[in-house]
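User: Teach me something about this protein's shape.
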Amino acid sequence: MKRQQVLVGGMPMPSLTERIVKAIFLTAICAVVVLPFVGVVSTSLSSPEEVIRAGGFVLLPTHGFDLSAYQSILSGGTVTQALLVSAFITAAGTTIALFLTCTLGWALSRRGSVGNKPLLLLVLISLLFNPGLIPSYLVIQQFGLLDSLWAVILPTSVSAFNVIVVRAYFIGLPAAVLDSARIDGASEWKLFWHIGLPLSKAVVAVVGLFYGVGYWNSFFGALLYLNDPSKWPLQLVLRTYVVNGVEIGAQDLGAAGEALPPQTSIQMAILMISVVPILCVYPFIQRHFAKGVLTGAVKG
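Assistant: First, the predicted structure itself:
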């Protein structure tokens, strides 16, 4: 008798050899991705002696953890200032961007509203055409925003892609709920604030994460528009000290007269501080991704 093949999802179940090969292959890929991150964490937490003995990069600390690198960069110098600037840019930018995106998405989702189609056309055109670097700089200059944090926040406060996703989600809201609220005398603002937003927490959370990550990781706008180093966000400091390899002095860390950890430890600590906030926020938003993005993408 022929041995019957077990079907999994309509496909023949892979053999033991195939599963072993796939497991080895996926394990190797995971190792390639995870090991550099483990090395960054370990180097930032290793003692100065161990970092020097390892030649600048420690895969696993063998003599316990040492927080001297973090104490140095958070002692009130350039990195601390940049961290506060990035926190302000992210908080203010995400709040403004979410408000503008949700209100614009709601307006575009109301098909009978005045100027709906021309405004929607402008939003779609902005997906295809970029204003360019020089025109953008001249606009910022004409508005007097050079060397201001608002030059980093305002130009990216509305993303056409996010507006389309939010609009599509609002279109998919139950019409019966909105109509019953209108019958009870609810204004358009009340419909948006008390019904539209509470029913759209998933897409708002996802779009908010998109904006938050974008503002937290942005450095090019700061590089163009900010001349005062005290206004630099953390990513621009990271680029200066880690990517460009500029040595960090005691005066930059607010630790004049104190012995500093190795440069590699300080650089890895800055890198970790730039990554950890997003890693902490993402698990709380991750469960909304499938519902928020996919539903908003396929409707409308």
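Now, about its shape. The two ends are 54 Å apart (CA to CA). Residues 7-66 form one domain. If you'd like, I can walk through any region in more detail.
User: That's plenty for now, thanks!
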